[in-house]
Amino acid sequence: MIDKRIPYTDLDRLLDRLAKRGAVYAPIKDEAGEVVLAARTHDQPIVLEYRNFRLSPKALVLPQNQTLMCFKNGDVEEPALSDRETFLFGVRPCDARAMLALDKVFIDGDQHDPYYARLRAKVAVIALACTRPTSSCFCTSVGSGPGDAAGADVLAVALDADLLLGAETPRGQELLSCVADLLTDAPGAAVKEAEGQIRAAEDQIAPVNLQNIARRLRDAYDSPLWETASLKCLGCGTCSYLCPTCHCFDITDDVRGGTVRRVRTWDCCAYPLFTLHASGHNPRPTAKERWRQRIMHKFRYAAENYNHLLCVGCGRCIRNCPVSMDLRTVLKEVGA
Amino acid sequence: MIASHQIETRLREAAEGLLRDKKVGLFLGYEKASLPFRTAPLFLTEAEKAKRLVWSPFCTANLAVYLPRLFKAPADAREAKTMPPPPAVGVVLKGCDARSVITLIQERQVPREKLVLVGVACPGMVDARKAERALGDQEALGAGEDAQGNVRAVVEDGTEVTLRREQVLADVCLECRSPTPSIHDILLGAPAEARETDAARRRTADLGSETADRRWARLQQALSKCIRCNACRQACPMCYCKDCLLDQTRPRWVGAGTDISDVTMYHLVRAFHMAGRCTECGACARACPMGIDARLLVRKLNLEVEDLFGYRPGAALDGVPLLSAFAMDDPQEFLTEP
User: Fold this and answer.
1) Which of A97, A326, B185, B324 could be bridged to B34 by S-S, CB 3.0 to 4.6 A?
2) A323·B61 Cβ contact <8 A
3) Is the ipTM of this complex over 0.85?
4) pTM value?
């Protein structure tokens, strides 16, 4: 519930307080002038004018390259992890929601991945509501929206005059209470303005019909649409690597000298090798099976297994695909 | 540009004719994409649908990348005996794409007699990310081409913005020396002149003139953003190996993660495998989600190949691939005096 506010001139002080407790990631401009979520340094001003970051924040809970353990001289060592917190400021609601989706996979069910859980437990998310969606956004169709608080500990809304904040979880409440002296109550008019802004953003997002999508996908398993839709896929992995909910990984042993590091790296179901068996058989031999699996995983298996879609409508896959594949086009055709 | 529209019309007629007369069973071209500044590859099998084909400043993809898989023999030898032969394929090619096809033919990955090549002399294609950056914080709702060949975009508030073509051309197009396809069965558009013949040379000279330490620092900085997604490799028409060295695990030649040494090895290995084969289409750079100049190393290696051996990949169909031939007067000082 948005009920507090802070002037922009005090934002740095708020982040300084958090910096005493842990690492702070905030939106800053990189050398190329692009806004990225990066470790905050004092010589870089925070930027609040951006649509979304090119990369999702998932690398902070599921690193592209994560050493799980080392074997040295017959001993097993796990890398030390600091117990300081990780604060993410400026994450968009879609990316905050994606963390919940990843939680479903790694910790909520009958699996408990300690390597994910330990990093995840440190993270506190201060999400920033969207005011300017892009033409590739479709968060409103997957149960999210420009003001969705799912996955956020604190939800912020940037008005012209100042920044509104609201705690969404007990952790968020604790965060806001530790900076209570910097906050004042948000007047009703400001809260109404924030709600209006969010509604205006929602109206700009073109909807995609995902009613009964799990059942529609189940019924369309053998449809010829998968063949046509997948012909142009290069299997390049861009969609998975930029996706905030894609989480498939590979584990390899990296042997250097007398030390073996067991490393987890990102993997992608679009790669031809992804399901290659040791026998040489591949149950997903062509792009058709792999593209179908991608959609099924996100919109059917996730719904059936977790009751939570594995897509947050951020549109990164659409925007960055080198051959302009658009999963919204496929979803529209399913069960149409 | 009136010419683009004319080319589009003639392209549709050519594709429709080829499919209707069964000269090809599949025609590869471009169609409208769901976002501005982009097109999507189109796999056309029905003559009546030829109107879906477009020709615009956004026809960036190198369609040659799809050819090897269309002619790959099935893994099952029994299946291979009973399967009908693959249909002939028609494909739209820009200058760089045509060089890729020549190289694929020379490397026996595609049969020339099964291809109908529709070449288009290319004025250079637009980099979607450059165009988006040029619009600042406004987003384009649609984009097209004006009579001067510039890009006209309609932005969110309804206004039109003109982006000069040179401002948003892909980097690889700014360095292009082969805008006109040297191989074609049909050629659309008047042959085009190369823009600036030594742009690539100037770009690499700047890197080459630095000290080794500075070069290493610049290379590390450029590659540090790499997330090892393999998009550059997958987009490259010359990377068709069934079992890529960089994926092998027994032994693991290159680690899978983002350690800078693994990242550098990945790019170095790819660059050396591309030397004398890369046809400078820019598919790698375009595919890279992190905006890395994926041609940084191979640009230099290709120029060295040209200087040492007088060879440009894909220049002529009767050329012999560089590493498949030698001449008695090939330079050898690098062997004896490294």
Assistant:
1) A326
2) yes
3) yes
4) 0.94
